[in-house]
Design goal:
Elements (H helix, E strand, L loop, with lengths): L1 H28 L4 E4 L2 E4 L1 H25 L5 E7 L8 H11 L3 E7 L2 H9 L5 E6 L10 E13 L10 E5 L5 H13 L3 E6 L3 H9 L5 E4 L7 E4 L9 E9 L5 H19 L1
Parallel strand pairs: 3-4, 3-5, 7-8
Antiparallel strand pairs: 1-2, 5-11, 6-9, 6-10, 6-11
């Protein structure tokens, strides 16, 4: 009961702090946080900025409380993720988990999704992230924690996109990015040839930089120096891919705690 009263007290403090902060912003700078649109009220740009800080304050508050509320966990977590997630998603997940569970050892396995599912079936890992698309979603266990559009990408100002038989730089067999792209091209009856294959997206990006091919990639990888391609170049819409979190039936307490941090980390990405 004491922990429950503390949670209510903390939330009341947050509400009071939020009210004081909102009043202070408006009084000091004369900047409104809300604007009326007909019968509804919407956030102004300043309000949206403040909302981001508010969410961050709530997350920090919950993590601080959970640090002292839960008994310290020890042990080991065996976590799998596709190669391309290593630098894109793992730093935030690992940092978040280490904040509240410093005594837990985390072993990370980076491999293609199909291999990670095999390891999960063999109980070689406790939980894993896997990439799926519309074709494989029903056959893949676990819950969707993130979804992102796939787009055609080429080097900015390049000529590979203008070839009649479009050259492709693809990920390896079994990757949903590859399967979704080829399915879209086949449905659109667009002529193509597979010029380069690499399990890691860095190999695809290298072929793009050399202006030797175009590639289907998550929109978040569209960096300066590259351009999004599409209907103008005769390339069809690819759709979305999903990231699923799959857990072993024998997963322990440390693994379950890690899974919660993984889900929360992707929820933050979705709200950013």
């Amino acid at each position: 009961m004491k922990a429950a009263r503390l949670s209510v007290r903390e939330r009341c403090r947050w509400r009071r702090s939020r009210t004081r902060l909102r009043s202070a912003v408006k009084a000091e700078r004369g900047r409104a946080l809300f604007e009326r649109k007909g019968r509804s009220v919407a956030l102004t740009p300043d309000g949206e900025a403040l909302l981001g800080y508010g969410r961050q304050m709530l997350r920090t508050n919950e993590e601080a409380i959970s640090l002292f509320r839960a008994p310290p966990l020890e042990g080991r977590v065996r976590f799998g993720a596709p190669d391309d997630f290593g630098t894109r998603f793992l730093p935030n997940i690992l940092a978040r988990f280490a904040t509240t569970h410093r005594q837990v050892e985390v072993n990370v396995v980076l491999a293609p999704s199909v291999e990670l599912l095999r390891q999960l079936d063999r109980d070689a890992i406790d939980l894993t992230l896997v990439a799926t698309d519309a074709r494989t979603n029903c056959a893949t266990p676990g819950k969707i924690v993130y979804s992102e559009p796939l787009v055609w990408v080429g080097v900015k100002g390049g000529s590979a996109k203008n070839v009649d038989t479009i050259p492709l730089a693809l990920s390896g067999q079994g990757c949903p990015w590859r399967a979704a792209a080829l399915s879209a091209l086949d449905s659109a009856k667009r002529s193509y040839r597979i010029a380069y294959t690499c399990e890691n997206c860095q190999g695809q990006l290298a072929a793009l930089l050399a202006d030797l091919a175009v590639a289907p990639l998550p929109v978040s990888l569209l960096a300066p120096g590259y351009e999004k391609l599409g209907r103008t170049q005769g390339l069809p819409n690819i759709g979305h891919y999903q990231i699923r979190l799959c857990k072993s039936p024998t997963i322990g307490f440390a693994g379950k705690a890690f899974a919660d941090h993984v889900s929360n980390s992707f929820a933050e990405i979705g709200h950013s």
